[in-house]
Amino acid sequence: MKLNQLSVFLENKPGRLSEPCKVLADAGVNILTISLADTEQFGILRLIVPDWQKAREALEKAQCVVNVTEVVAVEVEDKPGGLQNVLQAMEEARLNIEYMYAFTFRRENKAIIVFRFEDPNTAVKLLQQKGLKILSSEEVCQRVEG
Amino acid sequence: MSGVKCTSNLFHPDSALDYLPVEQLRQLQLARYQAIVKRTYDKVELFRKRMEQRSLRPEDIKSLDDVAKLPFTVKTDLRDTYPFGLFASDMSDIVRLHASSGTTGKPIVVAYTQQDVDVWASVMVRTFAACGLGKGDIIQNSYGYGLFTGGLGAHYGAEALGATVIPTSGGNTERQIMVLKDFNVTAICCTPSYFLHIIERAGEMGIDFKALPLKAGIFGAEPWTESMRVRIEKEGGIKAYDIYGLSEIIGPGVASACCAQEGLHIFEDHFYPEIIDPQTGDPLPDGTEGELVFTTLSKWAMPMIRYRTRDITRLMTEQCPCGRTVRRIARIGRRSDDMFIIRGVNVFPSQIEEALLAVEGTLPHYQIVLTRTKGLDNMEVQVEVTADLFSDKIGAMEGLKQKLGKSVEHIIGIRAKVSLVEPHTIARSEGKAKRLIDKREM
Ligand SMILES: [Zn+2]
């Protein structure tokens, strides 16, 4: 019930962001969602793709530093208070969120948010106990790609 | 020789000179020093002129303290007098020439009489003996044979030792591994980085390296670190001995590690060591770190008086557990050529390496960039991010930057800006990254 997220190290220089995207496009890898965390000097690009092994191979071949981390995709009601319910459940489960970002599409009033926890296995278990919908990699792909 | 904790049970007679009583050794050194100064003065014009400029005569060397008055010899002297300008023997008495390829321009040429070749073999015998080798050992010599002094230097020494020599020379790693395995080789001579390559390749070929009879590696011809030694010993299942030499002095055989593996014994009955301040040229007391200087006490064809090696080390005078009385130099990890000065502090790139290594236990590719803004010098250390160093968390990466910066500041006492850069962005030439970019306008 976890997703494999790819992270790519980038220097904070003009044009750096487009390069990994081009590498993936050339390799025929569709990017399901993307998020950039940056500082003044460097940034970390985080990606969710359907075939993470293929994407990783292409990126490493292009001499990128790539890291694979397990993240958790949680379904959120796309209405006022929807996110608040999810966050509250996490707080009650005493789960510490390292970072989070959203998928940009919505379907049937449902949004998907990606969470990074220190221990994703425990997080999945606790959140499912709280009645939250955790999406598998296949479900995420289906929803994004339709 | 009391208190000897470790000696080889194979004792070669040449090694007796390693154990001379210090007083006797100093007398021998002084007598040889006086003779070689006289010979060089008589035969080498460059040296005679420099002595005359200082109003010095060979007779002025009355004690070993007086040698500090003598002029230095530097590498450019060998280039300026290319090819034969520093020879003290007639070509008819010279039996061998070697040359080292400088990175720029002409090579430097070195010469040996028959007596010099014999001395060279003898110091290599003492090197091998100090590394626990003797008759019965099978030595694979993977140093390059040719103009380079490494191959033939080790070869003649190994034969004189009474060992069996396999002159594989460098290159063709798979054949090296085949010989290593099929000929029951017990010791190998090569550069430490090449040996690591051999281990790696052997692993790929499915060979259990530790099951081989190989017990020792005689490693030199490039600077290496203590952590590399530990790694080689662990992965290779051998003892890794550090040896030191340079063509200008004789080739390999100037100094060697012993069973204690703490520093390298100088064969100082032939090579007289000094440590000087690289800036002022003043002699430094034993135990102080500085530039290593050698005088060849017995080299006849091409004597070197106070040759500046540019290598930074210190003389260890404490009694070695092995019982040898000849002094030791500490492992050489850096050269005075590489030193730069920032805000009045002398810094060596190797210190930056030490600082980076201390943080994650691995040495990433790095580059030091010096700039000057408004009269103030700034140092930036660019570190290539590797998969080992990379985390998906911004906080972890910021923490890494901070740790690297603190480690650098802790070791050199100056604040440095650390930048994390993408892999393969630091320019490399021949596989080696250029360590220092000095953009300051002086
Ligand atoms: Zn010793």
CATH third-level topology of the largest domain in chain A: VC0802-like
Number of strands of chain B: 23
Tally of individual domains of chain B:
2
Largest sheet of chain A: 7 strands, antiparallel
Shape of chain A: globular
Which two chains have the most extensive interface, and how many residues on each? A-B, 22 and 18 residues
User: Poorly predicted ranges of chain A (pLDDT <50, ≥5 residues)?
Assistant: none
- Small-molecule components bound: zinc ion
| Oligomer designation | heterodimer
Poorly predicted spans of chain B: none
Secondary-structure element pattern of chain A, one letter each = EHEEHEHEEHEH
Percent helix among the residues of chain B?
25-40%
Whole-number count of domains of chain A: 2
Mean pLDDT of chain B: 90
What is the distance, rounded to the nearest whole angstrom, between the alpha carbons of the first and last residues of chain B? 55 Å
What structural class do you assign from the helix and strand content of chain A? alpha+beta
Largest sheet composition of chain B: 9 strands, mixed
Helical content of chain A (DSSP H or I, runs of 4+):
25-40%
Description:
The complex is a heterodimer of chains A (146) and B (442). In chain A, a hairpin with a 7-residue loop joins strand 5 and strand 6. The two termini of chain A are 19 Å apart. Chain A has 2 domains: 67 residues, VC0802-like (2-Layer Sandwich); 71 residues, 2-Layer Sandwich (VC0802-like). With 146 residues, chain A is of the alpha+beta class. Chain A has 5 helices and 7 strands; from the N terminus they run βαββαβαββαβα. Chain B is an alpha/beta fold. Chain B folds into 2 domains: 337 residues, ANL, N-terminal domain (Rossmann fold, 3-Layer(aba) Sandwich); 99 residues, ANL, C-terminal domain (GMP Synthetase, Chain A, domain 3, 2-Layer Sandwich). In chain B, 30% of the residues lie in helices and 24% in strands. Chain B contains 10 helices and 23 strands. In chain B, helix 1 packs across helix 2, helix 6 crosses helix 7 and helix 9 packs across helix 10. Chain B is globular. In chain B, 40% of the residues are buried. At the A-B interface, strand 1, strand 3 and strand 4 of A face helix 10 and strand 20 of B. Zinc ion (ZN) binds next to loops of chain B. The site of zinc ion has 6 residues of chain B, from loops.
